[in-house]
Design a protein that fits this description.
84 residues, alpha+beta, 4-stranded mixed sheet, elongated
Amino acid sequence: MRPIIEFCASNMHTGTDKVMKSLEENLDFDVVEYGCLGNCGQCYMEPYALVNGEIIAAESAESLHLLILEKIKEIEAMYDLLSE
C-alpha cells in the first residue's frame, strides 16, 4: 500500500513545503504537488494536505507532518487487518 499525499502549491506559505520535501524522501510514499486542490478557504487559514483523499489539517506545519504520519500508520493498520 502506497499512500498518496497531496499538497497544494498555494498552501506552501504555511510551511507545508518543508513537510512535502521531508515526505518525498520516503520512497514508500507517493507525494504530489498540485497548483490547487480546491479547498481555498482552508488553504488560506492553515497547513493541510490530502492523504488518500482525506483532508488532514493542523495548526502548524510540524503538527501536520506528525498527523500525516499517524494517518498513514492508521491506514496501514487497516490494510493489515483486512489482509488477515
